[in-house]
């Protein structure tokens, strides 16, 4: 709905080994220059402001394309995996109760299922898999 059928045909017929996100920006620049010549844009300052904003948006699209093109190195996923599993190993040790045979005051035996630790584990492990 953003292009006419003719523009869509021109866009599809253009051969490019990469994404063609830049084509509408070129069309926009040409149309803005044509609008200036026809008097639809009153002065060059307005045209310059319009082109600067368009170039800023185009550079953001280019940056996004760069992030998509270069994958995350495998070592990052390995580091995150190791961090998640290390965290939960530390939780297994750190969230244990004190030995009740030692007779610490106020530390009676309390047997329960650690619901929040399990929820936390499922959340982080599921997030890691995503």
From TrEMBL:
It catalyses: chloride(in) = chloride(out). GO terms for cellular component: chloride channel complex; plasma membrane. It comes from the Eukaryota. The chain crosses the membrane at residues 82-98, 110-127. It holds the Pfam family Bestrophin. Keywords: Cell membrane, Chloride, Chloride channel, Ion channel, Ion transport, Membrane, Transmembrane, Transmembrane helix, Transport. GO terms for molecular function: chloride channel activity. It is found in: Cell membrane; Membrane. InterPro entries: Bestrophin, Bestrophin-like. Forms chloride channels. Belongs to the anion channel-forming bestrophin (TC 1.A.46) family. Calcium-sensitive chloride channel subfamily. This is Bestrophin homolog. The lineage of its organism: Eukaryota, Metazoa, Chordata, Craniata, Vertebrata. The gene is Best3_1.
